[in-house]
Amino acid sequence: MLSMRFKSQPSMAWNKGKAHLKHHYGSEMLFNIDLKAILIAFAVSYGAVTLLLQNITFALLAALLPDTALYGFAPLFLLALFLLFTPVLSGYVVAKLARNRPQLHVLLSALLGAALYAIFSKSHPLVWASIPLVLTWLGLALLAWKNKRH
Which domain of life is it from (predicted)? Predict the structure, then answer.
């Protein structure tokens, strides 16, 4: 008697391949994400650095007199430093702390930073959200460059 396979019944080889894919790309992938590394990098870069820059800003503004040339420049410089430095630091720290898949961890950190920038921006949230998406990868590149040199 001939056995007929219908399209609704996959072959055994296909089932074995499907199980293999599920093992590598399915729910197991979520357990390989190191949330501790992402949260530590996010807290260090966006939390501690923000508090430090805020204290530096208040100290500079208190020390400088309003009629000096640097009085108007200091807050703009520190704002630019915050916008540019924190995503790079976040990407570097999360890539350093991640046990595996540093690119995936940097992507998740960049998405968190983009969400933070988009939520707190008053105008053009998509423009502001692109800043951490681009600069977080620079932190990963710095780590790769540093590891290549050593």
Answer: Bacteria
